[in-house]
Known about the structure:
CATH architecture of the largest domain: 7 Propeller
Largest sheet: 4 strands, antiparallel
Low-confidence stretches: 287-295, 305-373
CATH superfamily of the largest domain: YVTN repeat-like/Quinoprotein amine dehydrogenase
Amino acid sequence: MQKLSCGHEKNPFGAPLCAHLRTCxxxxxxxVKWFIGSGVVCVAxxxxxxxxxxxxxxxxxxxxxxxxxxxxxxxxxxxxxxEIRALSEPFDDVVCETPIPNDCKKIIDIAPIKHDSRSxxxxxxxxxxxWRFDAQNEASELVARAKVPSEVAGDWFAGHTxxxxxxxxxxxDFAAVLNDYGRHGQVIDLRSGKTTLRLDGGDYHPETVPxxxxxxxxxxxxxxxxxxxxxxxxxSDASTGGLLSDRDPTSYRSGEQRRQHYLDYFxxxxxxxxxxxxxxxxxWYGIRWAYRSFGVWTVGSRNTFGNPRMARQRxxxxxxxxxxxxxxxxxxKEQSPSVExxxxxxxWSMVHxxxxxxRPVPLALSGVLTGRGHVKFAGPAGKFFSDSxxxxxxxxxxxxxxxxxxxxxxxxxxxxxxxxxxxxxxxLIQLSDSALLRWGTTEKHS
Length: 446
């Protein structure tokens, strides 16, 4: 504890405030959020700073910070310029090139077999073949062959195009091939080569979202969590295709009473946390043809997904905490979140990255609404990955490694643009026409 500028002997909270905000007692004092480390200042102080005149800002306690920024303050803009701070420390920037076998040419997509500590991948090639590829000894094996039913791409929406994607189960026993921004897919048992489940995400504007799908482990068995309608998720047994989340329909007709578990929300891409306990749903709500629609990230527990009784009560069983929204016209697929780290969710907005503690889940919600539990810094952009220590981003000039606690860049590799992370092997990879470009991170999660 220390005596703060507000006069209270408490822990400092949030960003430092200018004297005008600290002493204001009547609404509404317009203020500016400064980009890097210089706090929150009123418009008059911001204008002084923009002229090169130094203005003082000091920390206050949480209660005084909330009063100043929400009780009497009115945010109007951001100020200053984003500063990307760099840390000088040893950094291995050597990228290894592993040739792809000739039989596996024309790769459509690639997915890591996460529970393998070796650099083992599942490859989907143009003719429908699924190959298991061990990048460490360059060994490949054809494990299945099948194609997703063809479908006509829907209307253009926010630059989305119909894209075939490959998913692999954590243990490598199952694979799924599906169409992002489409409705069809299939799950295959790689041990037998048989299709166990045909996926159908519904015909209501699937072009607005990636196909909602993830493998998970529930009660010791591999399951798939997948969209069966624009506003409905279900769980199926990966080995048999049997439905595990049977409940009443979510739809209703004109004149009928609205279902209790009806959800006016488009389920989007699903991301499973490394411990398998939580799922992040990158969806959206709003009217498609309206001027404004909003992206929404929600966090659900694996246990509530697997509880049929709770699922029947409300379709919102999986949406335990809404952790953020973003207007869709400023949100592109390259800015989707990554939940590689067990403790964090990454939220990209303008030039900031917010790292929000995910345990317990209510802290994630309060972190977004009050500023608690997050770190803000400029620089990361593009596709995100993370391990237990660093954040990685692929920008226009290559891969950057960031220390999220210090808010600094701790390494950079020019012209390396990885698209996949193998947490078990501790590798990021970029797929070229003839090779895998592999770079080892500092952390492994077996």
